[in-house]
Each structure stands twice: as structure tokens, then as C-alpha cells.
Write a structure and sequence with these properties.
The complex is a heterotrimer of chains A (about 120), B (about 350) and C (about 750).
Chain A: H1 6-12, H2 26-49, H3 53-78, H4 82-112
Helix pairs in contact in A: 2-3, 3-4
Chain B: H1 7-24, H2 32-60, H3 69-85, H4 89-109, H5 113-138, H6 152-155, H7 160-181, H8 192-201, H9 204-214, E1 221-223, E2 234-235, E3 240-248, E4 254-262, H10 275-286, H11 288-308, H12 317-331
Antiparallel strand pairs in B: 1-3, 2-3, 3-4
Chain C: H1 2-14, H2 25-32, E1 35-36, H3 42-61, H4 67-88, E2 95-107, E3 110-120, H5 122-145, H6 152-173, H7 177-195, H8 202-233, H9 238-242, H10 245-255, H11 264-280, H12 289-292, H13 298-307, H14 312-319, H15 321-326, H16 330-350, H17 355-375, H18 379-406, E4 416-417, H19 426-440, H20 447-461, H21 466-491, E5 496-497, H22 518-537, H23 546-553, H24 562-572, E6 591-592, E7 595-596, H25 597-620, H26 640-647, H27 651-656, H28 661-706, H29 714-740
Parallel strand pairs in C: 1-2
Antiparallel strand pairs in C: 2-3, 4-5, 6-7
Helix pairs in contact in C: 3-4, 3-6, 4-5, 4-6, 5-6, 5-13, 5-18, 5-22, 5-23, 6-7, 7-8, 7-13, 8-11, 11-14, 13-18, 16-17, 16-21, 17-18, 17-20, 17-21, 18-19, 18-20, 18-22, 18-23, 19-21, 19-22, 20-21, 20-25, 21-25
The chains are: A mainly alpha (about 120), B alpha+beta (about 350), C mainly alpha (about 750).
């Protein structure tokens, strides 16, 4: 277990900038991916479960988050900056989407005075 | 293909996690105990996963992730679970902010410092604030002791079992696929030094500044530059830097008067291209179009949001007509140039 | 066995020299020389059809005069004249007259030929004479009788009348069984149309339907008989049939009493044709339609249900006599059924109060006599009885019709009395008396006596049929009784009348009976005269069998009982045989009470008839009047019979209700059929409709199962999408694992 914590010492040295990130092994990558998948699934569950439209969109933002984490993790493994670039883009799109979604939610709320997604059932049957 | 963790164990972990989430989801008249129970189960699942991963790592001799990864992960997943299970929307948003902070921490561990803080600024500072505004506009949540007045919209989850089941299956599948496929990942294309080399070479001024700070550059000396490309002549692998002294030659043009090479043992430790540099160069060199497209997307979003959320104001018919006439006179000569600006409403309307 | 012994002698008589194998020679000789006749014979058939078409046109143009009647009378009179010419110009051999081809199919070696052509021989002429004659007379009667219906109804009546005479002519004159069937169905149709003439009266409509349906049952037998004839003999034409070698061989076999070699198919033909005859001629058990048919107008009852249509059965059996001879059980069955019918109908007739009903039952009874005659091998007797019965029964019906017409539809004999003494009703009274005398068969002075006597005598001189004879004698007594019951109650006595249901006035006491006009009186007189003149027909003849016998003998119906011959011989040798007292069986065969059959019969039936008349006079006759009448009846409604009937227990009640035969049929036949039809109706509704509806229902069930997935809620769709994704991924991963073969 000792060599697993060698990075603590580096951090303790004032968080000096690493010269260049070293290669990452698979076993280090795996937990990040697990967390990303778990966050994605939690976001999905939240989207399917909650009736409040705003919370539903918040859950989609969580899914974006998870995707971003996975992108950064893989980008780190590839030692380039592509992952981070893509995450900038994802962030941009998420912002745009949040704006549109909230505008729509406000509009819908005005019509029905309710934030419930189940209120819009006209395509029923 | 070898599995990091055997699939059965993985599915088991995911299943326990799903149970935990399902228990934690809000229902009418739900006792607190069940929610706590759900949280505990979830923690147990996560702990189990961590344990398995750790065991695998120790027995195969491969390194485990940074110690700080674990707190951030726990906080991240815990906060996201709390976000989806909380009854009040504002708390959900706040827990999401906590999730973002945890993500930020993990980004830092992954050497993506810029993205980490950009995440905080953009996500937590802009998007989530917007969400909070809209939540406060739309929701009237009662005080904490009147639980019964909570809108059913927030209080009851729909089909928790089915959703958690689907979620669990998806997590299991995704992670199985990822873990199985990890061994098949293509090898890293560029070598460490290669990546660093290209970036540093494009930052001669920065190199100058750092060398000067380190005291390796005398007065008038600077890093040698390539004539055609303008790149600094730095070799990261061999850890050498060429520095030159620029002077005037007989004709008055700039010419190299003397040059020296800084060797590897003189290499300053602080000379490195940081994340920001690399990211910037990658963004503008390799993906310039993306910036433009991103800008257009944001513009469209702004316009769209403005148009969509506009309030429609009902005018009386005669006022509408006056408005239309006024608008019409703005663009043509009609009305005999008679611009009264405002018409009196007809006598039939609204006499008290 | 009875028929066997019956046949052996006469066939031997017919061909004494040749011995075996020539019994059919007479038949062969007869049909051998069938020639072609003159075309004007077709007028007899097609003129009534023309009348049908013209009357239909009159109805369409809205004629409101008596023109339809005059048209029909004229056309029928011309047809009668043509028939007379046909009779007078007949040269002794049968001939056919071809109108047009109907079915003329030849395939391979077989053929089916049934053309629209007519076969004329003496039997045909006999029948056509009284059909056209009576048709003309009754059309004349109907021209006055139906005059209150002038307009569309009048035209409808006479068009159906014309159609009827056309159908009857086809039936009688057709030269193949298909023409017979055509006429058979046609007369059935016209009977339906005419019984239901007053179609707004539910009773009339029900009676018409009953007549048609009961006739249909008989028609089934007839149709099967036609089919079987074609199957067995290969032809349905008379000429070909009666010259068929197979038939001749059967007749020869039957002559020797050997029925075992005659195939069952051939024997069944006669039985099936017999069923048809029973249906049309109202024999037991298919007689129930005839009394109800009295709902039709009286001319219809007179023509169709007394004189012509109901004799179609008799004609059928007479025409196909050779076929009937060949069957072992057909003729005995005919005889017994006829007898039973006669007795049954007579008992019912005795207890009815509606005079037309009484006459209807008497018709059924007399038809039974005719059938008995046919079964007893006395076709001459049967044919003669047909002729005389046609006259006097038509006369009786028309007289009753005159009463009905004049008294606004009153037919109950408890409400009429002394009609003959009313002003203007004298002729009706006298002709009614003539008719009643003929029906009762008063000896020597009535033609009815002679015709009945022929049949009765045959019964007694034929071994094994003596029982029939006694039953028929008893029936004759009953006949006399009920006939004169009508006469004594309605026509003599103190004058009294009540108007019937057609009376629309307010006060019954101001009702005056409407005396019949010249048309009715003329017809009644003519018919009475014909009835009396028919006596002579028993005597005018080239031989001892009368004019009718001469006609019948030279047709396919020829058969005269050998026992008549034997009886004649016995008469000649009478002096050698002494009268022996005691039961008939101990006397020598062919004798009655030891006397010659005919003489004995005259005595027995004559005494019986007079006895019946006296009994009727005693019970129903009026009081006083020159001391001639024995009865004590002073009012119309009551008589001495009432007291006697009260003491007879349930019998009068049963007889009045027709022995509940109709009700029995209803319970045995109609109700089960109705139950079955209801069952089938429910099976159809539940099973079949249910099955079809189930097929329509299944898509709805399917949709009902699937519809909840279209909830319209966003998250519902999202759940299904995510779930689908999960399943898909699972499948892909599993397959990848399997395909990759990794653990």
C-alpha cells in the first residue's frame, strides 16, 4: 500500500506543478470510469423518476457532468488536450441547452401553472 | 480480455446500489429511517466497489488512484444521489453544486486544472444560478414543518422501481463494457516528451521569462528561434535549450553575436508547459472552427430563450389598432403626414 | 297378397287366350299408336291464360266494371266449346299436341324430355269437360257474387281464376310428369291466392298459408315420385312410360301375384305419388287445410275445393294406374286411407254449425269415397263419383254462398230458418234440395246414388274389403243425416234470420235479406239440372259400365274389377244359388246377403239413406207443416238434438272441435319445429354471430392491452427508451460474449 500513496508526498510539496503528467495505468483509470458511469446512471434514474420539470433538466445536467468526467479521464490517459477541449465544448452546449430548457419550462409553467411533467398528456392514447 | 472485476461482482455492486437509490427516492409519508437505510445501503455498495477495485489493484501490483480521489468520489456520488432524492427543488440545485465541486476535485487530480475551475465558474456560477432563479420563480415551497403542503410534483417519485432497475442494468452494462474493453484501448499516440516539446517550443517569451527568473539568462540574451517557424529551439527529451545573444552586425541587421546551450543539469525545474498553455494551443490550433460554432450556438440560445419566454401582453383592440397605425406611419407617408402620435380611444369604449 | 289375388283373375280375363305374359298387352296396345293432334286443342289451355293476362291489365288500368268477369266467362266458354269439339272429334286413339319445347335434353344415350305438350285420351277428355264447364258456370256465378268488390279486387279475383283454370288444364292435359307437376304447383298457388283473397283478414291469410304448407308436404312426395320414375324408367313422358318394357314385365309379374321380383324402387314410385295425392285431395292426415280454406270466397270453394283441384289427386292415381298396380301396398293403402278419411270427416261434419264447414267436411268425406273406389280397383266408380260430386257439391256450395251473400255473411245454422219460404229464395231452396238429395244418395232418383253404389258394390264383392264396405255404408248414413240436418234447419220451418258479420247497419231488426240475382239463380238451376241428367250417364253406354266407364276403360286407368264380371255371372246363375242368411263371409264371394252385389247394395244403401233423412227430420225438422215433418223444432236455435247431445257425453264436444286434430298437429309438429328454430336462432346469434364478433373484438382487446403505453407523459416514453437501450445493450454484450467465446 505504500507505493500507492507516494503521490501524497508530491502533493505535500506545495502542489508543485508537475512537469508533465505521467502515463496512467488502467487500474487507475477504472475507478474514474466507474464513478462516471454511476453518476450517469444516477442522473438517468433522476430524470425518469422526478416529476418536477426543472429537476428533470437538472438531472440531464448531471448526465453531462458524468460524460465530462469520462472525457477528462480518457483524455488524461491519452496525454493530449483533446479531452479537455471537448469538455469545453460540452460545457458550452450544456449552457445553451440549459437556457433553452429553462425558457421552455417557464413557458409551459405559464400555461398550466404546474411544474409537473405529467400535466402535459395531450398525446395520451 | 480480462476483467478488472468479474462481471458478477460488478452486477452485484450495481444491484445493491440500485436498491439503495430506490429506497432513498421520495414517497408520500416516507419515514426518515427508510431514507437513511437507503443511504447506508448505497454507501455499502460504493464501499464494496472500492474494495474490489483496490484488491484487484494490490494483487496485480498496479497503482491505485490518488488517495484524494476517494473522498471526491464519495462526495460526488452521494451528493448526486441526494440531489435526485430530495423533496425540495432548491436543495436539489444546491446538492448539484456540491456534485460539481466534487467533479472539480476529480478534474484536478486528472491534471485538468483549467477545466476544473472553468467548471466551477460556468456551471456552478452561471448555469446553476439560472436554475435557481427559475426554481424560485416557479415554486412555492412551504416551510419545513408543513410537509403535507408540498406539491405532489416534488414529493412523490414516479415508478422508482422500474427506473432504478433500468439504471442498475445500464450501470452494470456500461461498466462491464468499459472494464472489459480497457485492455483493448489503443496505445497512446504521442510520447510525453513529444507533447511537451511542441508546446514549449511555441512559447519563447515564456521560456525567456522563466529562464530570466531562474537567473540563467544574462542581459540581452534570449532563447534562439528558428527562422522559418519562429519556434524556440528547445529539446525536452535531451533537456537542452539554445540561447543566443542578439547584436548588430556590420550592416545594422539583427544577427546572432554569440550562442550557448543550456544543458540538462542546468535545466530549471519550473520550466514546463502548464495545462492552460496546452489547452489553449490545442483549442486554437487544432479546433478553431469549434470556437466559432460554439459562439453561434450560444447566440442562438440567447435569442431563442428571449423569444420563447416573452410574455404575451393582451391589448385592447383599439389600442392595438393605434399601435399598428403608429408603426405604419413610421415606415411610409400614409395618413396625409398627419402624425398625431396617439389616437383618442373611441367613445364607446370604457366610459365609466 | 290381396292385390295379388285381385289381379290374377282380371288380367286373365283381359287376355283369356294367351295365358301368361300378356297381361300388359292392353296397355301396350293402347299407347302404341299415339299420334299427333290438331293445334286448336291448345286453345283449351291458353285461353284461360290469356284471361289471366287481360285481367291483370284491367287491374293495372284501374277498371271498375264487370268487364273482367265477362272476359273470363267468354274465354272459358270458348274453352268449353273447344273441349266439346275435342270430345266429339276423338277417334279412339290418344294423341299428343306439341306447343313448344321446354326440356329437351339429350346427353349420350340418355335423355330428359319434358316438353310443353299435351296428351289427349279419354280420361283427359272426361276431366276437361267438367273442369271447363264448371269453370264457366262458376265464373258466371262469381260475376254477381263478387260484385261488391268491383275494382282492383274484382280483377285480381278473375285473373287468379284464369290462372287456376290454366294450371288445371296443364295438370290434366300434360303429356309428361313435369307438366303435371307444373299444373300441380300452379293450382296450389292459385288456391293460396284465392283463399287469401280477403288478405286483410288474418284468418284468411292463415288459412291460405296452411293450405299451401300442407299441400307442400304432399308435393314433396310427388316430386320424389317424379324423380324416382325418371331414375327407374328413364323417362317422364306418359307415352314412353306406358310403353316401357320394364313396366310391362312388372305388370305381368303382378298379375300372377308375384311381387317379389318387382324392385322396391318401382314399388316406391306409387307410394310417393300417393302421398302427393293425399296432400292435394285432402285425405287423412293431410286434410286439415280444406275446412280452413272456406275462408275464401264461395265461388273459390265451389270450383277449387269441391270440383276441380281436389280431384287432381284422384286424376293422378287414375292416370298412373299401371304404376300403382305394380306396387304391392299402394292400392290397399289408398283404399283404407280413403275409408278412414270418409268416416272421420263425416263424424266431424255432424257436429259443425257453420254450413260451409259442413260442406267442406262432406267434400273431404266424399273424396275419401273416391280414393276408396280407386283402391278397390274401381276406377270407373271413382271417376263417376268425381263427376257427380263435382256437380252436386258445386251446387251445394253455391247455394250456401247465395245464403251467405244474401244474409250478410251469416252461415250459422242456429241463426237461420225457413229460408226457402222467403221471397225470392225459392229457386235456391229447390236447387239446394236437389243437391242434398244427391249427396245423401237417395235411391234411383239421384245420380249421387249411382256413383256411390258403384263404389260400395265393389267393396262388397272384393274379397277382404268387406269391412271397408260396411264402414262406407255407415258413412253414407251419416252423410244423409248431416246433409239433411243442414236442409231442415236452414231452409224449412218458421222464417227467422239474423244478419251475419258483414252487416254494417245499426239495427238488426231492420235487416232485409238480399235475394240472389239472375246470374246466381241461372247457375244454380243449370247445376241442378246437370246433377239430374248425370243419372243418364250411368246408362248411356256401349256396355254395361256406363258412359263414364267407357271413357275410363279406354285410358290408362282402365281396370274393371273382375268381380263385377263374376258378380254378373253370379247373377246369371242366381237361380242356382239360394240366398243364405248370416254374415257375409259365409255367403258365396261376390254376394251381399246372398244376392247379387249390385242389387244388395241398392237395398242396403237406399234404406240407409232414407233412414238418415228420417233421423235428421226427427231431430232437426220443424214442427207441423202438413204433418210431414216429425221434428218439433219451433225456433232456429234449438231442436230435439240438443237434449240428446247433452246426454252423449264428451263425444259431441270432441266432434265439434274436429277431434282436436289441428291441436294435435300443432303440438306434435309445429311446436317442436318452433323450438328447434328458436334453438337455431340462438345458436346463430350466440355461436356464429359471437364468433364473428369475437374476431372483431380481438383487435380491441389487443389495443386495450397496448394503449397504456401511450400515456402521453414524457417520462413514460423516456422509461421505455432507456429500458429498450438497456435491453439492447444487454443483448449485444451477451452476444458479444458468446461470439467472442470469452468467460
Amino acid at each position: 500500500m505504500m507505493h500507492a500513496f507516494e503521490s501524497i508526498q508530491i502533493a505535500q510539496s506545495g502542489l508543485a506543478q508537475l512537469a508533465f503528467p505521467s502515463e496512467m495505468s488502467n487500474s487507475v483509470l477504472a475507478p474514474y470510469l466507474f464513478v462516471s458511469a454511476a453518476m450517469f446512471a444516477i442522473g438517468l434514474v433522476g430524470f425518469l423518476t422526478r416529476k418536477n420539470m426543472i429537476i428533470m433538466f437538472l438531472c440531464t445536467e448531471l448526465m453531462f457532468q458524468a460524460a465530462g468526467l469520462a472525457l477528462i479521464a480518457f483524455g488524461r490517459q491519452h496525454l493530449g488536450s483533446d479531452g479537455q477541449t471537448f469538455v469545453i465544448f460540452v460545457l458550452c452546449v450544456a449552457a445553451a441547452e440549459a437556457a433553452m430548457a429553462l425558457a421552455l419550462v417557464v413557458l409551459l409553467f405559464r400555461h398550466r401553472e404546474s411544474l409537473s411533467a405529467s400535466a402535459w398528456k395531450e398525446l395520451n392514447g | 480480455m480480462e476483467h478488472i472485476i468479474s462481471p458478477i461482482a460488478l452486477y452485484l455492486v450495481c444491484g445493491i446500489g440500485a436498491v439503495g437509490v430506490a429506497l432513498a427516492l421520495p414517497r408520500r409519508a416516507q419515514s426518515k429511517t427508510i431514507e437513511y437505510l437507503g443511504a447506508i445501503v448505497l454507501a455499502a455498495a460504493f464501499g464494496l466497489a472500492a474494495l474490489l477495485l483496490g484488491l484487484k489493484a494490490t494483487e496485480s501490483g498496479e497503482p491505485m488512484p490518488n488517495f484524494f480521489f476517494y473522498p471526491f468520489a464519495i462526495i460526488g456520488i452521494g451528493a448526486s444521489v441526494r440531489m435526485i432524492t430530495h423533496k425540495r427543488p432548491v436543495y436539489s440545485a444546491l446538492y448539484f453544486i456540491m456534485t460539481i465541486i466534487a467533479s472539480c476535485g476529480m478534474y484536478l487530480l486528472l491534471s485538468a486544472e483549467f477545466m476544473a475551475f472553468a467548471l466551477i465558474i460556468i456551471y456552478a456560477g452561471a448555469i446553476l444560478i439560472t436554475y435557481l432563479f427559475v426554481i424560485m420563480l416557479a415554486t412555492q415551497a412551504p416551510s419545513s414543518d408543513a410537509e403535507e403542503k408540498l406539491d405532489e410534483v416534488d414529493a412523490v417519485a414516479r415508478e422508482p422501481m422500474l427506473a432504478c432497475g433500468i439504471g442498475f442494468v445500464l450501470v452494470g452494462l456500461i461498466t462491464t463494457a468499459m472494464f472489459r474493453g480497457i485492455g483493448d484501448l489503443p496505445p497512446v499516440e504521442m510520447s510525453q516528451s513529444q507533447a511537451a516539446n511542441s508546446v514549449l517550443a511555441q512559447l519563447p517569451k515564456k521560456v525567456d521569462k522563466i529562464l530570466e527568473r531562474e537567473g540563467l539568462l544574462e542581459e540581452g540574451w534570449s532563447v534562439a528561434r528558428d527562422h522559418e517557424t519562429g519556434l524556440a529551439k528547445i529539446d525536452v527529451d535531451a533537456r537542452t535549450i539554445e540561447i543566443v545573444l542578439l547584436g548588430q552586425d556590420s550592416h545594422g541587421h539583427d544577427a546572432v553575436s554569440s550562442s550557448r546551450t543550456i544543458t540538462a543539469d542546468e535545466w530549471p525545474e519550473s520550466l514546463a508547459a502548464n495545462n492552460l498553455d496546452r489547452l489553449g494551443f490545442n483549442l486554437l490550433n487544432d479546433h478553431p472552427m469549434m470556437i466559432e460554432v460554439a459562439g453561434i450556438i450560444l447566440l442562438m440560445a440567447m435569442l431563442g430563450a428571449t423569444v420563447l419566454a416573452r410574455k404575451h401582453i393582451e391589448l385592447e383592440d383599439d389600442l392595438k389598432a393605434a399601435q399598428a397605425r403608429r408603426l405604419g406611419t413610421m415606415f411610409n407617408d400614409g395618413n396625409n403626414g398627419f402624425d398625431d402620435g396617439y389616437d383618442e380611444p373611441q367613445a364607446t369604449g370604457g366610459q365609466a | 297378397m290381396m292385390t295379388a289375388s285381385l289381379l290374377s283373375k282380371p288380367l286373365a280375363v283381359l287376355a283369356p287366350e294367351s295365358g301368361h305374359g300378356n297381361a300388359s298387352e292392353a296397355l301396350a296396345n293402347m299407347v302404341e299408336h299415339v299420334g299427333t293432334g290438331p293445334k286448336w286443342v291448345l286453345l283449351i289451355v291458353f285461353l284461360p291464360l290469356l284471361g289471366f293476362v287481360l285481367n291483370a291489365i284491367y287491374a293495372a288500368i284501374g277498371n271498375k266494371s264487370k268487364l273482367p268477369a265477362w272476359t273470363t266467362i267468354a274465354l272459358l266458354a270458348v274453352a268449353f266449346i273447344a273441349t266439346l269439339s275435342m270430345f266429339l272429334s276423338y277417334e279412339g286413339t290418344p294423341y299428343t299436341v306439341h306447343a313448344f319445347d321446354w326440356f329437351n335434353l339429350h346427353y349420350g344415350e340418355k335423355s330428359f324430355v319434358a316438353n310443353f305438350s299435351f296428351y289427349i285420351d279419354k280420361l283427359t277428355i272426361l276431366w276437361m269437360l267438367f273442369v271447363t264447364g264448371l269453370g264457366t258456370l262458376i265464373a258466371l256465378y262469381a260475376s254477381e257474387y263478387m260484385s261488391h268488390d268491383i275494382g282492383v279486387g274484382y280483377c285480381r279475383f278473375f285473373s287468379a281464376f284464369g290462372l287456376f283454370v290454366f294450371s288445371m288444364s296443364c295438370l290434366v292435359m300434360g303429356d309428361n310428369m313435369l307438366m303435371l307437376y307444373l299444373g300441380w304447383e300452379g293450382v296450389g298457388l292459385c288456391s293460396y291466392l284465392l283463399i287469401g283473397y280477403f288478405y286483410k283478414k288474418p284468418a284468411a291469410v292463415a288459412a291460405a298459408k296452411k293450405a299451401f304448407i300442407v299441400n307442400r308436404i304432399g308435393d314433396l312426395g310427388l316430386a320424389l315420385g317424379v324423380y324416382l320414375t325418371f331414375v327407374h324408367f328413364g323417362t317422364v313422358e306418359y307415352a314412353a312410360l306406358f310403353s316401357d318394357d320394364k313396366l310391362h314385365s312388372y305388370i305381368n309379374a303382378a298379375a300372377t301375384g308375384d311381387f317379389s321380383h318387382i324392385p322396391a324402387q318401382a314399388q316406391w314410385i306409387a307410394l310417393l305419388l300417393m302421398v302427393g295425392a293425399f296432400g292435394k285431395s285432402a285425405q287423412f292426415p293431410l286434410y286439415v287445410w280444406l275446412p280452413d280454406a272456406m275462408e275464401g270466397p264461395t265461388p273459390v270453394s265451389a270450383l277449387i275445393h269441391a270440383a276441380t283441384m281436389v280431384t287432381a289427386g284422384v286424376y293422378l292415381i287414375a292416370r298412373f294406374y299401371p304404376v300403382f298396380l305394380v306396387s304391392e301396398f299402394a292400392l290397399p293403402t289408398v283404399a283404407w286411407v280413403g275409408t278412414i278419411t270418409a268416416l272421420l270427416a263425416a263424424t266431424i261434419g255432424m257436429a259443425q254449425f257453420d254450413i260451409k264447414r259442413i260442406m267442406a267436411y262432406s267434400t273431404v268425406s266424399q273424396l275419401g269415397y273416391m280414393f276408396a273406389g280407386l283402391g278397390l280397383l274401381s276406377t270407373t266408380g271413382a271417376a263417376f263419383h268425381v263427376l257427380t260430386h263435382a256437380f252436386f257439391k258445386a251446387l251445394l256450395f253455391l247455394a250456401c254462398g247465395a245464403v251467405m251473400h244474401g244474409f250478410a255473411g251469416q252461415l250459422d245454422l242456429r241463426k237461420l230458418s225457413g229460408v226457402a219460404w222467403m221471397k225470392g229464395w225459392g229457386i235456391v231452396g229447390i236447387t239446394m234440395l236437389v243437391g242434398c238429395m244427391n249427396l245423401a244418395g237417395l235411391p234411383y232418383i239421384t245420380s249421387g246414388f249411382y256413383s256411390k253404389d258403384m263404389i260400395l258394390a265393389e267393396a262388397f264383392i272384393t274379397p277382404g274389403y268387406q269391412m271397408i264396405g260396411w264402414i262406407l255404408v255407415f258413412t253414407a248414413i251419416l252423410t244423409a243425416y248431416y246433409t239433411f240436418r243442414v236442409f231442415f234447419r236452414v231452409f224449412v220451418g218458421d222464417q227467422y234470420c239474423e244478419p251475419g258479420e258483414d252487416f254494417h247497419g245499426d239495427d238488426e231488426s231492420h235487416f232485409h235479406p238480399h235475394a240472389p240475382g239472375w246470374a246466381i239463380n241461372a247457375v244454380l238451376i243449370t247445376l241442378a239440372a246437370c246433377s239430374m241428367l248425370a243419372i243418364s250417364l250411368a246408362y248411356i253406354s256401349p256396355d254395361s259400365h256406363g258412359w263414364v266407364g267407357s271413357l275410363v276403360e279406354e285410358s290408362t286407368a282402365s281396370f274393371h274389377s273382375p268381380y263385377a264380371e263374376a258378380a254378373h255371372h253370379a247373377h246369371v246363375e242366381h237361380t242356382a244359388i239360394h240366398a243364405v242368411d248370416g254374415p257375409v263371409g259365409h255367403a258365396a264371394p261376390g254376394t251381399v246377403f246372398g244376392m247379387n252385389a249390385h242389387t244388395g247394395m241398392i237395398l242396403v244403401s237406399g234404406i240407409g239413406a232414407i233412414f238418415g233423412v228420417l233421423v235428421a227430420a226427427f231431430f232437426h225438422g220443424p214442427k207441423g207443416w202438413q204433418g210431414l215433418f216429425l221434428g218439433g223444432r219451433t225456433e232456429a236455435a234449438k231442436c230435439r238434438m240438443d237434449a240428446v247431445a247433452a246426454r252423449m257425453g264428451p263425444i259431441p264436444h270432441l266432434a265439434e272441435n274436429k277431434w282436436f286434430v289441428d291441436e294435435i298437429y300443432w303440438a306434435i309438429l309445429v311446436t317442436p319445429l318452433r323450438v328447434i328454430s328458436h334453438i337455431f336462432h340462438w345458436i346463430d346469434k350466440l355461436l356464429i354471430d359471437g364468433l364473428v364478433n369475437l374476431f372483431g373484438f380481438l383487435p380491441r382487446v389487443f389495443a386495450w392491452i397496448i394503449r397504456p403505453s401511450q400515456s402521453g407523459v414524457l417520462q413514460g416514453y423516456a422509461v421505455s427508451m432507456a429500458g429498450g437501450l438497456a435491453v439492447l445493450l444487454f443483448v449485444v454484450l451477451v452476444i458479444v460474449v458468446r461470439a467472442g467465446g470469452a468467460a
